[in-house]
Design brief:
single chain; mainly alpha; Four Helix Bundle (Hemerythrin (Met), subunit A); 7 helices; 74% helix
């Protein structure tokens, strides 16, 4: 599976059998507990999951501006479009939640692969195969987080262009959070790249990560500029 195809849908990524990912209810925890877990010595949530949380917060800010535009006087002409943009943000937020759990589970699976026995040649071969499998996944999951943050930056930019002028400043907040998420998630990709032996997969991932970083920076800068120009007209 190429990085591009793996990065486009979390359904293409491997999780535990029978969907027994222990982190599926992560966002149901109290916020203070999530912060304490992130600050603790536990191996998860780590950088990729925290990057996803940043993307989730960015999506909420873009969604808020869209919600404040719905049914608003003087914005009748953009109601259909803003509703579609809000749906895109909502879908993105739901996927980010799933990817947060998948990122943590992927790291667990990679650690489990490293702990496999290697006393015999057959065991060593299987161990290396499992390590490679989950090293690629440990790159593809944050790559998808970064890609999704990049996609939502485009959605958020359009909300900034047509959304409620009194609230549009929060689209700039969303842009900064989403770009930060895209950049932060890439760091989790980069740490695993040197351990991927498949040259084609490594090149594919590298190409995608470079494109995302460039596009995310441009989208963020353009959105902040749009917001600044609209603020001046208020």
């Amino acid at each position: 599976m190429s990085a591009a195809s793996a990065g486009n849908s979390p359904a293409r990524l491997t999780t535990r059998e029978n969907g027994m990912n222990p982190y599926l209810n992560f966002y149901e925890k109290p916020f203070n507990e999530i912060l304490d877990l992130a600050a603790s010595k536990r191996h998860v949530p780590g950088g990729g999951s925290v990057a996803a949380m940043s993307a989730a917060l960015g999506a909420t800010m873009g969604s808020m501006v869209a919600n404040l535009t719905l049914h608003k006087q003087n914005y009748e002409a953009v109601q259909d479009e803003i509703r579609g943009l809000l749906n895109t943000m909502t879908d993105g937020l739901n996927e980010i939640k799933a990817l947060t759990a998948l990122d943590m589970d992927s790291f667990d699976l990679l650690l489990s692969a490293y702990r496999l026995p290697r006393e015999t040649n057959a065991q060593s071969i299987r161990r290396q195969e499992e390590i490679q499998k989950y090293t690629v996944q440990a790159s593809n999951v944050p790559l998808r987080i970064s890609s999704l943050a990049n996609d939502l930056l485009v959605t958020n930019k359009r909300i900034a262009e047509i959304g409620n002028g009194s609230a549009v400043n929060d689209c700039a907040v969303a842009a900064i959070l989403l770009e930060s998420a895209a950049r932060a998630a890439i760091l989790s990709v980069d740490v695993n790249l040197p351990n991927i032996k498949d040259k084609e997969v490594k090149e594919d991932i590298t190409s995608v990560r470079n494109r995302i970083l460039t596009e995310a920076r441009v989208s963020c800068e353009e959105t902040v500029r749009i917001v600044s120009n609209r603020d001046k007209k208020l």
